[in-house]
# Entry
Amino acid sequence: MEPEKKLPLSFFERLPKTDLHVHLDGSLRLSTILELAKQDGVALPATTEAGLRDAMNLGRNCGTLVEYLRAFDVTLQVMQTEEALFRVAYELAEDAARESVRSMEVRYAPMLHGRLGLKMTQVVEAVLAGLRAAQQRYGIESTVIICGIRNISAEVSLEMAELAVAYKNRGVVAFDLAGAEYDHPAKHHKAAFQLVRDNNINVTIHAGEAYGPESIAQAIHFCGAHRIGHGCRLRENGDLLHYMNDHRLPLECCPSSNVQTGAVRDLASHPLKLYFSLGLRVTINTDNRLVTDTTVSKELWLCHTEMNMPLRDIKTMILAGFKSSFLPFHVKQSYLRQINEELTRFSADGKIADAPTRATGDPPWRDPAARLLRPSEPPAESVASVS
Ligand SMILES: [Zn+2]
# Structure
């Protein structure tokens, strides 16, 4: 039996985890926005952290997805140089590593970063370099998902798909469609999806957030999605729900964000618990660390405190995150072995056993962490030692 007492947020910060649905342009630090604006001469709606928090509606219920997306008008203004892109990518990975995220898939739409004339390749390279620098320092594995935007033209989506193809096996792992879902069906972007599918690139699509289950069906059957972003309205179609379950198609759930965009009424009525109990592969993600004012730890903690999910269910969702990532199969297997082992240290009574120490002189094949290192990677600094 799980104890009645709820586990604290700090406990969830120690659990190893993934973040498979996180937008670069929604996950900056407020202090960095202010610094970059000053440096690049960008006028912001406020000049203090508190003022900006208010002007951008951070962490607030916005009522609709379109209202929620307004905060991005501010963040995009300061993300138009290689230096800024490197920095925000680095800091996002640093923040994630500090809450024990081990594997992260960062998504963004490169065409939104060309206002000052940056070439799309420069945009992609700068973000990859920032993530790589953070990986070298903290050991966090980060890859990139390139987004097309529903409410921008199909031609631009095709250009983004071409970029995803060009950077396949060079840090980019998938293609996504984000933006305003209502009135902007994914099938309008058919050429982009055809190109990425022809090149065996993974597909994930925001669907069933601001539109019904038809949007999810279209994402899967017409665009070839391997995962679904949000899927809040999947519960309205039982047949499709079972199809996703039978095919182990994961859901990228972002509970707090879904409340803020009005996709669900409140956390207690979020369908993720229903999906989980039916056996669906449910993963927990941030969506936007800044705009939603959250972390993966906080989202898992909210599942525990607001939806009464016990630790064993939280662990299952953590493992679903590693299973659902777009990493190569053998890498995922290594992660799963290691994370399974690590999770046994965390007990439902809130106790965390020390990590087993390897005797000096043990061969590296006895160390699961060593197996995860890629050629030419320096050993990762322990996340626990990051101040
Ligand atoms: Zn999203």
The first strand starts at residue 17 and ends at 23.
